[in-house]
Amino acid sequence: MALEVLLSGAACLPAALRARQLDTFDQFGSGDCLRSASWWLCLLGVSTNYFMHGFIWNYSKRFAALCEKPPLKLLGSHPVDVFASLEVVAKLVQACSVGTLLGQSGRSAALEAARTAPAWCWAVFAGLLAAGQALNAATYNAIGNAGVYYGFKLGRTVPWCSGFPFNTGLRHPQCLRRG
């Protein structure tokens, strides 16, 4: 747990430093921002994915039953496949939510900030992106969609995996299966 907190903090540090350079921290906590409907709609759009995860985790039988009927049945033949498809939709909703909040001027400013970011920001970004995607690919390779998308709760057999990346000391969903 401590390692995860440390890694999460390290991942946020470059963005936080850059946000401080651009004087954007104060804007997100300002009253104007908190009174903005677009801010709350963005928050809802970004958090919807987490509500979905909570629902599927806590009500997996109900989710499986919903997957037997349209429109969810159109997304896959098994609840795990439906969940995987919903993840793609959720990521699109998240991206659109942030893009809508930013508006044209905000998107232009974000692109300009990225274009003018110092080399160290790009180096840290590239390193963290590469490490994250390596872990992501290794996880899918080790346990497949069934392991990633709560297959053991949705009726699929998920073999226990103790090799990479599950031997790195980071928590993973399969830990919840151990008694």
From TrEMBL:
Keywords: Endoplasmic reticulum, Membrane, Methyltransferase, S-adenosyl-L-methionine, Transferase, Transmembrane, Transmembrane helix. The keyword ATP-binding does not apply. It comes from the Eukaryota. InterPro entries: PEMT/MFAP. GO terms for molecular function: S-adenosylmethionine-dependent methyltransferase activity. The chain crosses the membrane at residues 37-59. One of its GO terms (biological process) is methylation. This is PLMT protein. It comes from Symbiodinium natans. The lineage of its organism: Eukaryota, Sar, Alveolata, Dinophyceae, Suessiales. The gene is PLMT.
